[in-house]
Each structure stands twice: as C-alpha cells, then as structure tokens.
Amino acid sequence: MYTKKRKKISFDFRILLFYFWFFFFLGIFSIFFIFYAASKGYLGTLPSTKDIENPTMEVGSEVYDSNGILLGKFFSENRTLITYKKLPKNLINALIAKEDIRFKYHSGIDAKSLLRAIFSLGKKGGGSTISQQLAKLLFTGPSAKNKLQRMHQKLLEWVMAIELEKRYTKEEIITMYYNKFDFLYNAKGIETAAHTYFNKTASELNLGECATLVGMLENPSLYNPKIYPYRAKKQRNLVLSQMKKYDLLNEYKYKEELKKPVKINFKMQKKDFELLTYYGEFLKKEIQEALNDHEKETGQKLNLYSSGLKIYTSIDEKMQDYAEKAVKKHLSKLQILFNSSQKKNKNAPFLNITPEKTNRIFLSAMRRTQLYQYLKQKGMTEEKIIKELKKPKPTKIFTWNGSQKVLMSPWDFIRYQKSIIQAGMLSIEPYTGYIKAWVGGIDFNYFQYDHVAKTKRQVGSVFKPILYAAAIKELHYNPCTKISNEKFHIGKWSPRNSNGKYGGHLTLKDGLALSVNTISARLIAQITPGPVIDLAKRMGVESMIPEHPSIALGSSDLTLYEMTGAFNTFTNYGNYVKPSILVRIEDKYGKIIKERIDISIRKVFSEEVAYIMLKLMEGVVQYGTAKRLHKYNFILENIAGKTGTTNENSDGWFIGMIPNLTTGVWVGWEDRFAHFENIKLGQGANMALPIWAYYMKSLYKDTSLVYHEKLFFHKPKNSKYNWDQCEENKNNNEENNFKDFLDFDESLNTENPLDYDK
Q: CATH number of the domain at 456-577+602-668+678-741, please?
C-alpha cells in the first residue's frame, strides 16, 4: 500500500515537473516569439533602419548678422545640439547613478532592474534603461494610459533599445538622450535647458545644477525648480544620494551640496527664441527660395525649422540698433505734439471725417479681434458684443516709455492703437543691395505689421526724382534746363503750388530742390506717364502704377522697400540691385548650401544720368525742402535726398543717400485719416527726415563702421556737365532767381502736398 502511494506521488511529481518545464519553456519561447514578432514589426510598425540610423532630432536654424553675431533662430523645437565632450562629468555620472547604474554593461535591457521592477510592481524604481528611455523619446512617444497599450509600447521600446545599442556607442546614446529631452519652457535639450534655468552653457553647470536637471528627467513638470523649488530640491538630493551610493560622489562633497539651496537664474533668453522681427517673413521667403533651388539641384530636402542650418545675413546688429533708437528718439517727441494737437478733437485721432465714418473704422478693426470672434462664436449679438467691448478691463498698452498696465476698454484700446505714430526704415548698401538695417515698425510685441515691405502708401514728392531721371534720360535735359512755372493743367487735372505763386522759369535743379508741382506737371506732360512707369519698374517698383499724370506728384501707393531700392539705383550709378538680406546658408555640417556670389545687376541708366540726379538731390538737402539737415550739423556736400508729403499730411517720407548707403524713412499712422492738421508738423522734412539725421549721426560717430563725411560721389569719366556754369547762370539771371517769385518759408521748410483729382 505504501509502495502504491509512493508510486502515485512520484507520478504526480513527474506530471507537475512536466507542466513546470512545459510552461517554463513555453514562457521562454513566448518571450522570444514576442521579441521576434516585435522586431519584425508584426506587433506594430517599427522605425526603418534609416530612421534608427538618423533619428529625428529637430534643430532650429540659427540666424547671424554680417559680423557673425547670433540674431535668433527659426525653429519648431528650441534645441541646440551639444557633443559628449561638452557634457560635464557630473552630468553624466548623475544620469547613470539615477537612471541606469549598469548602463555601461548591458545591451539595451537590464534584466536585473527589469525583474526588480516587476516583483516590486515599480515601487523600487522602474526597469527602463537609458537606451529604452531614448527609444521612447525618439520613437514611441508619451506613455499610453491604457495598460495593454503601455505594455505594447514597452515591447517596442525594448526592441528599439537593442537596435540603438547595436548602432551607437554608449557616449552617443547619452548625448542623444540629453539633446532630445524636453525640459519645458521651450527648452529642448540640455544646452537650452542650461541657458533657460541657469543662464549658462551646459559645460558650465556645477554639481548641484547637474543634479537638479537630472532630477527633472523623471518628471520635468513635477520636479521643475521654477514651479516647485521644494520638490526640485528633494529630487536633487535624491540624485546626489544615488551618486554617493555608487561611489560617484564622496561623503564630504555630498554633505556640502545638501546644505545648498536650489538656485536658478531663469531666463528665457531672446536669442534662444524664434527670430521675431519685422524682416523675419522677408528673410524666410529668401531662404525658402534658396532651399527649393537646392532641392531641385541635389534632391536633398532641407527644412528651415528642423535641419539645423546656419543662416548668414547682411543685417548689421549695430546699425539695426542705431536705426531702432533713431525711430524711437524722434517719434516719442512727435507723439507728444500729436497728442497735444488732439486734445480738443472729439473725433480723435482722425481729422476731416465724420463720426459715423470713424465708428465704421473702429467696428471694422473690432471685428478682426480674437475677443470679438470668440464672443460671436458663443452666439452673442453684435449689439451685446459692442456693449461688452466698451467695458473697461485691465489692459497692457504700448507707450514710448515701455509697456504699461491700465484700465481701458477694448473699444478705447483700438482708438488708442490708431493714435500711435508708426514708421518704417530701410538701409541698403548700394553696390551689393545688402540690407544693413530694417525697422518695420515701432514695437513688434504690439504692432506686427511690417511697414517696409507690406505697407503701401502714397509716396508724394519722393517719387519726383524718378520723373526727373526719365526727363534727363528721355528728353536729354540737364540740371540747367529751364521749365515754366506758369499755371498748368491737363484736362481736369490742375496741380497747384502750395504757396499759390506762379510765373517765371525754374531750372530742373531748383524745381526738384523746392519740389515745385508745376515743373513736375510739365515734365510728365512732355514725357507722358508710360516712360516714367517703365523706368520705375526697371528701378525695382513692382506695385501697380496708374497711367495718369498725377503720378508725377506721387499719387501711387508704393512700399518703402520699393522706393528705397529705386533710389539705391541712383547711389549705385544707374545699376539696380534687388535689396536682399540673405548672404549664405550652411547645413549643420558646415557645407555651403547657398552663397550669394554673383549679384544680379540691371543697368537702368548711365552713370552720367545717375550722377546728375545725385547732384540734383544734393540741392534738395543744401537749399531745398530737406535743408533742415543743417540744424543737425552735417557737412551737406555728398548728401543727396528727397522729402515727400502726401495729401492732408497723412504720410511723411525722406530718402537720403551718402556714397555708400541708401536709407529710406516713412512715417505715418495705421489709418490715413490720422494726421497732423498743419503742414509745418506733417511734412516729410519734419516727420521722417529727423530719423534719418539721428541714424546717420550715430553711424558717423561709430568708428568701427565705414560711414563718414569724407566720402564723396565720384564724377563719371568724360562727364560733360559743368555745375559751376549752371550756378553762374542762375546767379546772373534774375528771372531764375526763385526767391523773387516763390514765397518759400525757410523757417517752415514747407513742401507741397499732393493735388490731383481723386
């Protein structure tokens, strides 16, 4: 009986043993099968070999000025890549101690850590190695909330970790991990994180800072030193404890570091962010055209936001700064005068329109606001929306002394915004067409619309040099050619001189210097608009110009970019070069993708015509509508320019040229109905010219730049024109003495507004 019982136990044991080994090998086989299925992509799509060997690491493109100074970035992820050699030893040790102490010895999966995590249900730490965490960052993404989906992700991460270990060294894996991790606040990667949280490079991080950032790897939000400093300190101390535990930190340093608080120097540095500036869109367009050409030639597709390009521009940071300061210096004073003039204006900031029209302008602006559109979507009627938008709310507004918080209704905010004087400024190097400074507005944080390349406004008398150049080119006139100053009309169009004085004759030089409308009208009548329009187009004007004689007085709506580029044709002795910012593009390896070597030049007119025009415009500065440059103590030889003023003083223009720089300035308001009431304040010589003067003074004072008053416009070889002879004729001819018949108020420096049939 005992024997039978023993046999039965032995039989049961063998059955049990059989099932044990059966399920054991079944488990092993299942694990291998699952790994095999996962590795072959049967359990979900795996990254391709190409993706593994070239993992996605989006790096923004850096933009540099002409002297190699970083201006900003274009990016989808704010990341700066760092090499392993630049990672501090403490940063590497802290990572290994906290996340994966056997990192140097395993091949992607740490079996010991994995079993510990399984049996402790994660209470004694996770089982993910650094390689697995990198696989998650690169390929699987955020953890799924569903447990089955998360298990599936884990399987893929195991497979990808092994694949990463096959292809990369341990150093490369650590470097990729640090470069890929998102530390929040738009700080992608360790280098950007070091800048953001401690305002230093990663290589400069001390022990405590390294431990703080490594502590964030577990949960960058929960252990963020900016949001939760107490938690961040506890997490930092945990990292330090792990380093001590594994002999990566001695007892003395450990205790010393524990005493220290977590100190951050949080700074979202301007240069770490996207290049938010007025010329950004123009530059992006130039870059994209170059990248498209590169793709056609090589088949390689590069992305401005993620390919880590280095973009070199013609912008000079110093000149840009001088230009912005010049705009602020003048407009802050001009704003005070405008605000003072509006105190009794119930329709402020507009003049000469009805309150009803003002209301329509405000309504139109209001309907474009996000708040209006949000309330509209909620089903509110326009009447209720308007009532809501007229309620005062805490509002941040622009002032010339910095932003201020005030109590103001959205309706009054629109009125306030429209009262602010706006400006555009562009500075071009003549021979290359390179743009050295671009001020598209007064403050990009409040006013994003670019007044250089986008705003089209009437150009006024600043268009007249193009007309005069056409007369010299087509009719072979010279500066001494005399034109009648009698009243003149073409059909219903009867241009008037601003002072109402007519009679006698004026030379072309005096006609342009004093911006006399009758002279311009007679010239357009003789040439006809066609050749003038053709010349303007060849000088870079792309906007539509109506074939009407009123274009002689600047009735066309053009951009500052177009007009400054056209004037640069004079400075460049008859050669048009399209103004450009982009100089060179390099890929992340330093290979040149695009370099502007051959500058496209279009011959528009002869050196002789250009030189004559420059000398004519010197007269504008020396004794004409721009003569108030005298008060800024310039040596007025070899400075050429032209002012412009439009109907009702809505726009003020000045484009000034020295031998190696062409600079255009426009000043006005968002709406043409906002303007000064009198021409003394509203003319181009008062609105725009002082900005040019302040800017040029700054350039002349800076000895590191190449702009000074000793430069001169060179006279073409074999030039037939003798200026002294013309001056002699003028002095000896009473009929041509403009002071006898033209009431030109020297104190006001008045210029004629436009006068044409609308």
A: 3.40.710.10
